[in-house]
Design a protein that fits this description.
With about 110 residues, the protein is mainly β. About 0% of the residues lie in helices and about 50% in strands.
Length: about 110
Amino acid sequence: QVQLAESGGGLVQAGGSLRLSCAASGRRISINSMGWYRQTPGKQRELVAWINSGGGTKYADSVKGRFTISRDNIKNTVYLQMNSLKPEDTAVYSCNFQPIPANWGPGTQVTVSS
């Protein structure tokens, strides 16, 4: 069974950058499409970026041009580079399989101050 561990969140000022990491263990995820999701209290979880096994990517309109998803199949890790952060990007960010997520972990908190 695969485990996904997110890291890299924190507190940053508006306009700043963060790089999130999602390290997989238990099996290789190179054949899987992976996504970064985010959720704020009282709102539905939102898929913000995803990457397929061939490296093709797609983004939600709200993050297009600011976020970049990538993967390192040797390290079995997926990344989310977040630039030009806005207060509305504040959320708990999680990685998971796409389109059908597995069990959710705790994610990593990203807080953007104005």
